[in-house]
Amino acid sequence: xxxxxxxxxxxxxxxxxxxxxxxxxxxxxxxxxxxxxxxxxxxxxxxxxxxxxxxxxxxxxxxxxxxxxxxxxxxxxxxxxxxxxxxxxxxxxxxxxxxxxxxxxxxxxxxxxxxxxxxxxxxxxxxxxxxxxxxxxxxxxxxxxxxxxxxxxxxxxxxxxxxxxxxxxxxxxxxxxxxxxxxxxxxxxxxxxxxxxxxxxxxxxxxxxxxxxxxxxxxxxxxxxxxxxxxxxxxxxxxxxxxxxxxxxxxxxxxxxxxxxxxxxxxxxxxxxxxxxxxxxxxxxxxxxxxxxxxxxxxxxxxxxxxxxxxxxxxxxxxxxxxxxxxxxxxxxxxxxxxxxxxxxxxxxxxxxxxxxxxxxxxxxxxxxxxxxxxxxxxxxxxxxxxxxxxxxxxxxxxxxxxxxxxxxxxxxxxxxxxxxxxxxxxxxxxxxxxxxxxxxxxxxxxxxxxxxxxxxxxxxxxxxxxxxxxxxxxxxxxxxxxxxxxxxxxxxxxxxxxxxxxxxxxxxxxxxxxxxxxxxxxxxxxxxxxxxxxxxxxxxxxxxxxxxxxxxxxxxxxxxxxxxxxxxxxxxxxx
Amino acid sequence: xxxxxxxxxxxxxxxxxxxxxxxxxxxxxxxxxxxxxxxxxxxxxxxxxxxxxxxxxxxxxxxxxxxxxxxxxxxxxxxxxxxxxxxxxxxxxxxxxxxxxxxxxxxxxxxxxxxxxxxxxxxxxxxxxxxxxxxxxxxxxxxxxxxxxxxxxxxxxxxxxxxxxxxxxxxxxxxxxxxxxxxxxxxxxxxxxxxxxxxxxxxxxxxxxxxxxxxxxxxxxxxxxxxxxxxxxxxxxxxxxxxxxxxxxxxxxxxxxxxxxxxxxxxxxxxxxxxxxxxxxxxxxxxxxxxxxxxxxxxxxxxxxxxxxxxxxxxxxxxxxxxxxxxxxxxxxxxxxxxxxxxxxxxxxxxxxxxxxxxxxxxxxxxxxxxxxxxxxxxxxxxxxxxxxxxxxxxxxxxxxxxxxxxxxxxxxxxxxxxxxxxxxxxxxxxxxxxxxxxxxxxxxxxxxxxxxxxxxxxxxxxxxxxxxxxxxxxxxxxxxxxxxxxxxxxxxxxxxxxxxxxxxxxxxxxxxxxxxxxxxxxxxxxxxxxxxxxxxxxxxxxxxxxxxxxxxxxxxxxxxxxxxxxxxxxxxxxxxxxxxx
Lengths: 576, 582
Ligand code: SRM
Ligand SMILES: Cc1cc2nc3c(=O)[nH]c(=O)nc-3n(C[C@H](O)[C@H](O)[C@H](O)COP(=O)(O)OP(=O)(O)OC[C@H]3O[C@@H](n4cnc5c(N)ncnc54)[C@H](O)[C@@H]3O)c2cc1C
Ligand SMILES: Cc1cc2nc3c(=O)[nH]c(=O)nc-3n(C[C@H](O)[C@H](O)[C@H](O)COP(=O)(O)O)c2cc1C
Ligand code: SF4
Known about the structure:
A: five-stranded antiparallel beta sheet; 17 helices; 20 strands; B: globular; binds siroheme; binds flavin-adenine dinucleotide; binds flavin mononucleotide; binds iron/sulfur cluster
């Protein structure tokens, strides 16, 4: 069956390898925006045209166009960056950005509020410290994630190396990026010769995401991505190979059951040296099999649902020449980060700090994240590691340096001792920058958590770890469907409540109640906390409890995510 | 020739009409008879005489009235003076300093100069060139030239009437004979100027007061635009154009009139009659120890300038109150620097003394209107006028201050309220023929008249190209009228636009930098006859832009500094370099 290609497919085809009319658009001084087509293309270069939604209502009246600015997403495989690189991002944030940096749920930095006339200067600074933004967004392989915590240093070093290898191997080859942003010369007829051996002119049907996990930590939420690698360590702690997972993804659309989040399937096991070949095969099969007619059905998770895992595996093995072995057993315990100091085999120290929702900024009277990290970067000679939970690790601190770092951390109040629920929480960016947000998220969750903390305390659950994640829309940027308590924006001040995901990230949640405002959210959770306190079995996680206790049905996988939703047992009954 | 007698004739309007009814249709012979008869009539001491006995008419004595103006006050006084001069048998010729050939002064017998001071003690923009020549070596000797100078100024400025003073001294130094002492006028110049004109003319007029002379009627003189008083307008729109995240407030004000709007042209301004901030008035009354006197409060709020603090005020204060410390301050010579950044209330609070309302009023002057460039064209907005007003707010000596008029607009006025305005024409800042190219440099509120220009050119489908340079602080928060400029570029009324936002980048960028970037095209436009307009800040911007334009000429055409300077002053002479700065 041949269906019409989606609009973006024609766009990519005609874009001369992602050039479009970006160069011309940048010269247009009187508008802060760029034309619609270029807005799609510029994503492949790692940025989005946004506008300050807080200001939207007043702009027309004031005879000004929308308050346009660009969001720029850096590419940092495995989330490891040098002090020099952090200082560069910091400088850009202060000079051209909105005086904040944003650690994302994919282990990198985002900058917000860069206006068009400052884009080139910004991109040059990023390039100067050997960072890039190419393919940080767009229908290509995005930033590759890997467990960044160096305490298992040898295994970890290997996964970081592999994250970089995968990232480099799947990087777009088009010269457009250097041409447009770094004033490179356009190679005459450059677009004619084949510049994209892996992607071709039209790249992938949709975004594509790869992660690497090292059990027992599932901090990267391995099942939430198109392609995942679960490291299997041998007896002497080296990586013996990887279980390969495919077909995970979060995004869906309210009211469209044919869209759903999906946890990845374990497809088999491969040797470390085969990992890149397998990745390329998975990418090219998705390139050729993925649905290019409907962007809402174009992710690998739907390809796998449509073609079946076996057919997909067979094609991957054929193209890669790798015969996947049977998956090896593995055990995850949690998706969270380990806070505080840890020490690795080589005696280096690593300090993991909780950054609320990943927002690096100076909070009046509170933690001075921007200034603090800057000063730490100025003295630190190890590296920094961004986690998939929007946190940061000051890594590889020599023992004699620990005290200095510790002092700076205290000076700038960077160790706000947050409660277990807060430390296990994430919120996506949402308003005011995200164009797709239906409700607040990053700006709202901290307050909601405070109320939830109070409820938990009243039930004597203060020390329990419960994973809470919020997003401003169903796209799922903070992977809310893998949280024990997931809150997804439905409209201004209204959220859908999802429950029953597994603490280790292996099971999706289920819709429990709809359109809840702040009060209703707390009212719905409180009796569940009470029940959890009185009825839980020992060691039982909240996410598992609400299913066993019959409050909500379990989700086996994506296709039944929307089945038997809603409260299965009246919670109010057992509140008294 | 139905009405040969000009309205400038020394008769009342209705008299002029009657005379026109007679003289208009009269034949050549009838007119000759009248001339002779009237001349004879005077000569014979009023007794009717036979025409043929009439004494031969003597020629009227010439008088040169030179004026240097920016906003028209001096020019208006010059024409009033000419009117009066004719009554006294003088033949006045009015000369704009902008068009004066300095050498020609040598041949003048009677010279009157009416000069305003601008900027920080500078001559009005258009007079700069001539002023320089008059002060320079090249100036001619003026031995025996009878002269008098009337200076216009504002006591609020440190260099009060500086230009008038310098010209007065210079004329004397060049050998001129001062027959009327200079008078320095403050903003309320009407009375002192009127008196000075009388005395000056007495001193200059021929001994016999012009008896027997045929009054020189300057047939060339066109009827001066009828003086209209202030009119009421209703505020139909009042928007702060800066984003809520901007540090600035710039108000777009739309005024509608009962009936027709003042007959303004693009480039004209409106005088806005403000009221003082009630809170400030109360503070002032409290400081003066004057409680709740309703009528005094009203008078101070509506009619008096109660913020300006000048040396003059200090002197009056010292003499009226006999305040010792104020005397000492004045004697110390530090008074001028003490005044800087202070207002009347600071004086009274710092040197408190119980005052009577009469005394308090003595320390104030009439509240003067503020001028605002009209930002609209009647061809597009009909019987409305739009203004663009930047709120003046600052803090000095621990007190938050605001501009009287801009503060009135920003904090007191609301949509639907009424206020008083008066047309302030500016024929020296008008659009050229529709087929001429124009270059407009208008950062900040300087862009106001250019919105009027663009509207006018759209309505008249002008063929000439137009190029706008705009600048402000932040692209995102301070881009005034952005959407309108985008439309104008789309429909081609604006050919091109370049912008400079000073706070978006580490190094500050201003319009003059953009002008420098585009100097090649810019000089090309000027060579093709383009008109160059500057509006906005006089202190820095206008000077920097001019300096940049000179450098641009030097660079693009490989000219010496002098030649480049000449290139620009030539534009000036050809009236293609036009500014309205403040
Ligand atoms: C910054 C970040 C959230 C955060 O709080 O950290 C983010 C922010 C945005 N995401 Fe996301 N996504 C982010 C991780 C994710 C994740 C989580 C992950 O990758 O582990 C997901 C779910 C996994 C998945 O892809 O299924 C995710 C699923 C989406 C989707 C839905 C994709 C889908 O196929 O359904 C969209 C909308 C779309 O692509 O059409 C989206 C779109 C967006 C955009 C670019 C909105 C837009 O398209 O205009 C958001 C920009 C907001 C802003 O102002 O910064 N974002 N987004 C994360 C940046 C990751 C990175 O560094 O690359
Ligand atoms: C022909 C012409 C056209 C004009 N067009 C416009 C226009 O289109 N838009 C516009 O906004 N303005 C325009 N102006 C300026 C306008 O007339 C007023 O001068 C301006 O609005 C300030 O008036 P105000 O009554 O608000 O302030 P005032 O009460 O007159 O106070 C202004 C005085 O405050 C003092 N002051 C101001 N800032 C500071 C500071 N930071 N520190 C210390 N002292 C300070 C200075 O002494 C200054 O003279 C124009 C002026 C002219 C002559
Ligand atoms: C921006 C500006 C600057 C001025 N600078 C001075 C000055 O330095 N000294 C002074 O005595 N008067 C100054 N004045 C007052 C003018 O000289 C006064 O308004 C005069 O009446 C203007 O006359 P004109 O309309 O003929 O130009 C200034 C007025 C304005 C609006
Ligand atoms: S989840 Fe939705 S609202 Fe939140 S950042 Fe992603 S797209 Fe925006």
